[in-house]
Design a protein that fits this description.
80 residues, mainly beta, 5-stranded antiparallel beta sheet, SH3_Rv0428c, Histone acetyltransferase Rv0428c-like SH3 domain-containing protein
């Protein structure tokens, strides 16, 4: 697993973590996005839709991932 002392804010990561008892969605979840903050207690990841704060004790796996590919232009419908 990735050591959080080796990463800096702004790097893109994927983090798998255990959900708290009673949370919907199964036993685990993933956060994919930009690392914002690392503290003794938690790691904050800015995903596409929200800032996710993950307790470090809940993290099972973490790794760096490449930057997201550039978005494509929307397709233009063909005129008939």
């Amino acid at each position: 697993m990735l050591s959080f002392s080796d990463v800096t804010p702004g790097e893109r990561l994927v983090v798998r973590y255990r959900l708290a008892e009673g949370q919907a969605g199964g036993h685990f979840s993933d956060a994919l996005g930009e690392l914002r903050e690392v503290t003794e207690e938690s790691v904050s990841i800015q995903t596409r839709t929200e800032l996710v704060r993950i307790p470090r004790a809940a993290i099972t796996h973490a790794k760096r991932v490449p930057q997201a590919p550039a978005r494509r232009r929307p397709r233009v419908p063909r005129s008939e």
